[in-house]
Design brief:
147 residues, alpha/beta, 3-stranded parallel beta sheet, 32% helix, globular, AB_hydrolase_3, Carboxylest/Gibb_receptor, Alpha/beta hydrolase fold-3 domain-containing protein, hydrolase activity
């Protein structure tokens, strides 16, 4: 939506002030280190993508890889700040990190904030939403939204 809003005006003059990406599901060619933590899950995520989007061109489709050739330029994002939440045991963690690095390197003038929790995997907060790290992540999201 944020990338689309950079190309198309939103209805009623609406503006997007920020983006929160919680444990983003990004894929791409070439392994990243976090995918080695659970190769079976990493492969299942690739297979799931082809089910979710049967018309996909693969893991470098801009819909799943914002850093792929042909993806919209990140420097045109239609918001001024981004919060990316990562989990250290998530096989997708390094894809999220790469997204942050790509955003910073793109020339986009906004602010990138990263919150990384320890001891948890992808979307842990949906199962154990009262644990300390889930509360810390929720607090970071609330502070970001309320700024």
């Amino acid at each position: 939506m944020v990338m689309r809003a950079s190309a198309e005006e939103l209805p009623h003059g609406a503006k997007i002030s920020g983006l929160v990406a919680v444990h983003p599901y990004f894929l791409g060619r070439g392994k990243v280190p976090s995918e080695d933590s659970d190769p079976i899950i990493a492969e299942k995520l690739v297979k799931m993508w082809s089910v979710v989007c049967p018309a996909t061109t693969g893991v470098d489709d801009p819909l799943i890889n914002p850093l792929a050739d042909g993806a919209p330029a990140l420097d045109g994002m239609a918001c001024g700040r981004v919060l990316v939440c990562l989990a250290d045991i998530d096989v997708l963690r390094d894809r999220g990190r790469a997204y942050c690095e790509g955003l910073n390197a793109s020339g986009w003038p906004g602010e990138v904030e990263v919150v990384e929790v320890t001891g948890h995997g992808h979307c842990f907060h949906l199962v154990d939403f009262t644990c300390d790290e889930a509360v810390r992540q929720d607090d970071a999201i609330a502070k970001f939204v309320n700024r």
